[in-house]
Amino acid sequence: MVDSNNFVGIDGFRRKKSEDAIISKNVASLFSTDTGREVLRYLRSITIESVNGAAVSNDELRHVEGQRYIVGLIEGRINNGHKVKVNE
Fold first, then answer.
1. Does the N-terminal or the C-terminal CB of the chain have fewer CB atoms within 10 Å?
2. pTM for the full model?
3. Nearest Cα to 41, choosing from 4, 87, 75, 77?
4. Which DSSP helix (H) or strand (E) runs through 7?
5. Residue 25 parent element (H or E)
6. pLDDT tens sequence across 26-56
7. Rg (CA), the chain
8. Strand partners, 8
């Protein structure tokens, strides 16, 4: 029998698989609205779609990569939330 707290979610944290599914469904629901899609589009434009020049410092680059990670995590949760919903 697998320990239900041994599931590692998209974010790398251990929690019950059922709790992880709820998080993904909530994120997917939030960003499925017109407003949510516009907010995500904005976040992508200032993170993932933004290009830094050669003069960017190590600290600035680390900051931007952290922002990109969070937006990617949101998108991953949205995709996972849709999969969870289909499999219910």
1. N
2. 0.87
3. 75
4. strand 7-8
5. helix 17-30
6. 999 999 999 999 999 999 999 999 999 999 9
7. 16
8. 14
Token pair 């919903």 is at which residue?
A: 85
Name 7's bridge partners: 15
Per domain, the residue ranges of the chain are 4-86
Tell me phi and psi for residue 7, to 5 degrees.
-80, 130
With b for 16 or more beta-carbon neighbours within 10 A and e for fewer, the 67-80 pattern comes to: ebeebeebbebbeb
Retrieve residue 2's tokens: 């697998």
Residue at token pair 């407003």: 35
User: How many CB atoms neighbour CB 39 within 10 A?
Assistant: 14
Answer whether 43's CB lies under 8 Å from 68's CB: no
* pLDDT per residue as tens digits for the range 70-82: 999 999 999 999 9
